[in-house]
Prior knowledge:
- With 315 residues, the protein is an alpha/beta fold.
- 29% of the residues lie in helices and 21% in strands.
- It has nine helices and 13 strands.
- It has helices at 11-14, 16-25, 66-71, 96-110, 130-144, 163-168, 176-192, 219-226, 269-277; strands at 2-5, 27-32, 35-43, 51-56, 76-81, 115-122, 150-155, 196-199, 212-213, 228-230, 248-249, 295-298, 305-309.
- The strands form three sheets. It has an eight-stranded parallel beta sheet with strand order 9-8-7-6-5-4-1-11. A three-stranded mixed beta sheet has the order 2-3-12.
- Helix 5 (130-144) packs parallel to helix 7.
- The longest helix has 17 residues, at 176-192.
- The chain is globular and about 55 Å long.
Amino acid sequence: MILSASRRTDIPAFYSDWLLNRLKEGYVLVPNPRNPSHYSRIQLSPHTVDCIVFWTKNPKEMISKLDVISALGYDFYIQFTLTPYGRDVEEYLPDKKELIEVFLKLSAKIGSNRVIWRYDPVVFTDRMNVEYHLESFEKMAGLLEGSTNRCIFSFLDFYARLKSQLQNLGVRDIQEEDMLRIGEGFSKSAKKHGIQLSTCCESVDLSRFGIGHASCIDGDLIQELTGCSLRKKKDNGQRPGCGCMESVDIGSYDSCGNGCKYCYGVYSRERARVNRENHDPQSPVLFGSVPQDAVITVRPVKSLKDGQMDFFHLI
Length: 315
């Protein structure tokens, strides 16, 4: 299986000790988002986990643990979301100069092919307009040149429950004409700095600029990193247009502390604060405790590798 850690919360930023303990103990309990009294028990082993895909806005605390994760026998790559926004949009993130230094340090440690830059989402306001994003992307691409091979971007989705706080920021819908201008400009900057560019779950066609559709859980990349062919299956549980492979997510909603105004993973900031306070790095669950009447189901997991090593990994 492919382990996703996580679309639902920033495990590298806030829960890397917990993750390391789970990998060492060999299992994790994950509550069903729609039925919190039901848990999946997921075996964690290098024999069943083909690759871990990390999603994060600040992996600083996890960098020192990556050698241990590798020594335990796990392959991984990291999707690092790095945008130009300030604390009015991403309230609790460190200064972006610091995060760029973290990005460079991470890449130097694990290699540019294992660090995917996400400029995600493109938030559009009167101030953060086309010119703002073109200038910001060019500057950031220049700073990250040589430290990443790929960048994924997407335009902001207006989730109904986020509408009021996004409107308070002056966020507005982006028109297709502006998407095309951004796509063209981003493409020029990406090519200039040796970065492959793609979009995540976007219906707008930017192929004229050499921009394809991303697979964030990327079977081709995982094959490249592991040296093994995979039995690839599309994840039908994701949004239309998503090209991701099927994966198992071990995160939980309402547990991230980055404070991003556009976040779909936090329904209540107060609930997220309480959940973080109830986090125990030694627990099999991310936060809280498992109730006595919990229904725990062992989730069947197995490797997707077909056992054939790539020729270039044999020589």
